[in-house]
Amino acid sequence: MGENSFEFILNDRFFGKVEGSVIQKGNAHIILNLLKTETMYDLHFKLSGDVSVECDNCLDEFTLPLANEFHLLMKLSENEDYSDDEMFYITRGLIEFDLSQYLYESFVLSIPPRRVCSMAEKKCNSEVADKINNLSDTEEKGNNPLFDKLKGIFNNN
Question: Between 84 and 136, whose confidence is greater?
Answer without folding.
Answer: 84
